[in-house]
Amino acid sequence: PLCKTSDVSKPRYVRVNTLKMDTESAFLELSKHYVVHKDEMVPDLLKLPPGTDLHQHPLILCGTIFMQGRASSMVAVGLWPKPGWWVLDACSAPGNKTVHLAALMKGKGKIIACELDEQRVKRLEATVRLAGATNVKVKHEDFLKLNPEDPCYSKIQAILLDPSCSGSGTAIDRLDHLLPSYTAGLDDNTNSDRLRKLAAFQKKALEHAFSFPAVERIVYSTCSIHQIENEDVIKSLLPLAASYGFQLATVIPQWPRRGLPVLDGSQHLLRTDLIEDGEGFFIALFTRKADHNRVET
Ligand code: SAM
Predict the structure, then answer these.
(1) Architecture of domain 71-287
(2) Is 114 a catalytic residue?
(3) Taking CB atoms and a 6 Å cutoff, what residues make up the pocket around ligand 1?
(4) In this structure, is the dihedral angle defined by the CA atoms of residues 288, 251, 237 and 105, taken in order, positive or negative?
(5) 162 is in an annotated binding site
(6) Where does S-adenosyl-L-methionine bind (predicted)?
(7) Which ipTM value was assigned to this complex?
(8) What's the CATH fold of domain 7-68?
């Protein structure tokens, strides 16, 4: 059974929005009132003591820093698009990773942020505005229906795919609704049916990402602890990935916790642990050379 993670015992992480302030200045500003450490794994991420409440902090309110967990912050870092690239954030609301991409790209190049849900599009637009990420174009669209050959998308060089998932690796408020069924085993069929449906969508979305002609890097991520949404999705699509010229590459090589050893190349995958790291995330990175010879299917 899943354990509840104690939210109050977890360090608070904030990501500095380098579009608005450099990390050193934010560090010094926050250090006036808090004990602050720079994270060793993720650039521009600062760690504050458990229980620090920053909701009303001026730097939060003006989008200079964002409350974003460590694992969540590893996703855009894993993709690491170059300034000037064309990037597609396939499933993007509320936009935390979108604006992180914009910061990594120093506001240069273009990010298309796609989101299916109308209400969530509004949250995405608000995040983009707050961050001052002027190179982001929000699209209220179904990612699965985007035409990769359309001139809008045919130049896309990197895709961040963070599709809907069970959320089983995130904070207690998201776990709460799952806990009774997991712990009491009351509704295993409903849960496994839900996971199968999510996995089917996740596979479809990753298949679609492979078909964009100029893409060199794809990151696939979930905040799920379930193999069916993580390693199984990657394993089932390895042959298709190879047919498009993609191979797995190691996400943040210095991170020690890797994928479950259920496929060749699991050492390339990244996991964070719900208990040890406070969040259960999964990240996979596919790369191919810019001058790849695409095999037509
Ligand atoms: N990357 C986001 C962030 O870090 O802020 C979180 C993304 S959330 C896990 C997944 C999002 O995908 C949801 O907002 C959901 O509405 C959206 N979504 C689901 N199916 C989609 C589709 N077919 N096309 C585009 N967006 C979709």
Answers:
(1) 3-Layer(aba) Sandwich (3.40)
(2) no
(3) 91-97, 114-117, 120, 142-144, 162-164
(4) negative
(5) yes
(6) 91-97, 115, 142, 162
(7) 0.99
(8) Alpha-Beta Plaits (3.30.70)
